[in-house]
C-alpha cells in the first residue's frame, strides 16, 4: 500500500514565541523533520496542513501572520501540497482527500499538533474513511488542559490521546521504530 505523510499544523503559533506554545513542540518538530526527510528520500508524498483564520481579530492563526506560517524546520519543499484549513479536521472543507487520491495514497502516517485537537480529528476522519493510520507519538505535541477544576498536564493529555488512537483508530509508534521498519 502506498503511504503518505500528513504533517499537521506545525506552525509558528505553537512555538514559545507564539500565541499558543505547546509542551515539547521543539522535540516534536525535530522528530517530524526526521520523518519528512525520510519521506522525501524514499518517495513518500508529504502533505502539509496549515490552519488559518480569515478573521483579522482571531486570537491565533490569522491569515498572513507570522504565527500562521509553517515552521521553517518543516516547511514544504518543491511541489509538496499545502492544504489550508479553517476547521479542526483537515478533511473538512479542504481538498486533502482529493490530494491523497491524486497521489494514490492508501495508508497515512500522521505527525504534528495538537494531539488532542487537529491530530485527533484527522486520525479519526482518516480511519472513518478506511485509511490505515499510523501516528508517530513523539512527532506530535499538545498543551496542558483544564476541565471542571482539574488541571491535566500535557503529557497526560498526549498519552490519553495516543491510547485512544491505539485502542480503536490505528497504530501508534515512536519515530525511531517507524524509521527502522
UniProtKB/TrEMBL annotation:
Isochorismatase-like domain segment(s): 5-145
InterPro entries xref list: Isochorismatase-like_dom, Isochorismatase-like_hydrls, Isochorismatase-like_sf
Enzyme class: hydrolase
Superkingdom of origin organism: Bacteria
UniProtKB keywords: Hydrolase
Gene3D superfamilies linked to this entry: Isochorismatase-like
EC assignment: 3.-.-.-
Protein name: Cysteine hydrolase family protein
